[in-house]
Structure to design on (241 residues):
């Protein structure tokens, strides 16, 4: 079982032997030198120094390399990942200046020794945000950035230059959810982070995720989690103690 609590970062090399596996944690593969041929789910690519890849949990992937290579690999515990944000498909993106900066920070943490896990845990929300930015249509990105504000389907549809009816059908095909359900789940995900990581009141958290009343947040938790926000906080604090 994959039960580690912090992000594990390592320099890794790959051989010409093909390996196929999956694991219960996410994995971010950042190139340092050489190439890696990899298939993750339906996505196949030749990774080089210009391309990085995020592999989601439980995604079967096959990989090998026939040239000298080295990659920076982050194994990310599943509980740190949000399927709402990152989805269940691999994300490939170019190594731009933003990712070069992230790579530099991670390599610096590795040089500091075995205590890097905690520091990488602090860096990961930014890494996650960058991955989300790479894959999201404009309106879905807007939901993640403005979940604390009033959101209407009409406004979101206009961002994609669709009429409201077509947008709702398009959104369902893109995410498997209606726009309103997706917004609620994003708000729920953010509320869970605040309940785990802060001592803010339930009312304060409700307001910060775009809900006017504490009772609205309570109904949301009971619908999706079958517990109240207070019970969710107590359960998670007990797990960490």
């Amino acid at each position: 079982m994959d039960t580690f609590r912090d992000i594990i970062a390592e320099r890794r090399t790959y051989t010409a032997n093909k390996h196929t596996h999956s694991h219960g944690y996410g994995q971010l593969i950042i190139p340092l030198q050489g190439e890696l041929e990899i298939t993750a789910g339906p996505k196949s690519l030749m990774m080089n120094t210009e391309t990085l890849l995020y592999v989601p949990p439980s995604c079967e992937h096959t990989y090998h390399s026939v040239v000298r290579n080295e990659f920076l690999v982050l194994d990310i515990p599943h509980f740190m990942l949000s399927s709402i944000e990152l989805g269940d498909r691999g994300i490939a993106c170019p190594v731009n200046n933003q990712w070069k900066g992230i790579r530099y920070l991670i390599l610096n943490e590795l040089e500091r020794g075995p205590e890097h896990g905690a520091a990488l845990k602090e860096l990961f929300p930014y890494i996650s945000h960058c991955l989300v930015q790479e894959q999201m249509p404009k309106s879905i990105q807007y939901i993640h950035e403005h979940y604390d504000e009033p959101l209407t389907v009409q406004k979101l549809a206009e961002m994609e230059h669709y009429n409201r009816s077509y947008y709702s059908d398009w959104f369902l095909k893109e995410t498997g959810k209606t726009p309103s359900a997706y917004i609620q789940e994003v708000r729920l995900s953010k509320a869970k982070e605040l309940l785990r990581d802060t001592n803010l009141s339930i009312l304060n958290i409700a307001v910060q995720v775009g809900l006017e009343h504490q009772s609205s947040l309570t109904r949301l938790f009971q619908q999706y989690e079958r517990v109240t926000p207070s019970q969710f906080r107590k359960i998670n604090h007990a797990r960490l103690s």
Q: What stands out?
A: The mean pLDDT is 88. Residues 38 and 63 are 4 Å apart (CA to CA).
